[in-house]
Amino acid sequence: MFSLHSKAFLEANIADFIIPSEKVAHVQRANTLEHALLVLTKSGYSSIPVLDPQFRLQGLISSSMITDSILGLEQIEFDQLDKKKVEEVMDTGFPTISLQTQFKKALKLLIDHPFLCVVDDEGLFEGIMTRRVILKQLNQNLHSAE
Ligand code: 2BA
């Protein structure tokens, strides 16, 4: 067991741990499911943010949400991919954080969510905080404490 009592770690600034918006794969809410599936497949990520044209965060979309939405009674209805829009399928019930969120709170949310979207007061998308970045930092802290 190890202890996580490093004040510097628990009170760290969210800004130091975010992947900035320009490096985050995303889709627009009006995109077709076909486009979203292409972006998900090409980026290799299982879930990515959905934005509006003003770069405000709208939701999250994953490959499984897309597959689920085109499942017919007996077969997968592939022709629905270019008919349905991302906004009809995306998840909107997920927590977000801001640059002012306490690091401790973000750490707790990352237990249940592989990444957290960071937004400003007006809902503008600023980037994501991922489990990988936090685990990497934690790993560094453990080694420097040794
Ligand atoms: P997943 O796509 O399920 O990825 C789980 C983990 O697999 C990632 O953890 C990362 O360590 C690795 N991984 C997957 N695809 C990768 C790729 N194309 N390049 C490098 N590593 C890859 P985290 O880095 O902690 O990311 C957690 C979740 O955050 C990802 O879950 C994905 O949904 C999202 N994510 C991370 N970086 C992203 C980005 N640049 N754009 C969009 N979404 C991102």
UniProtKB/TrEMBL annotation:
Q: Does the keyword Transmembrane helix apply?
A: no
Q: Where is the CBS domain?
A: 18-78
Taxonomic lineage from the root: Bacteria, Bacillati, Bacillota, Bacilli, Bacillales
Question: Which intervals of the chain form a coiled coil?
Answer: none
Keyword field: CBS domain
Q: What is this protein called?
A: CBS domain-containing protein
Q: Which Gene3D superfamilies match?
A: CBS-domain
NCBIfam families given in the database record: CBS_CbpB
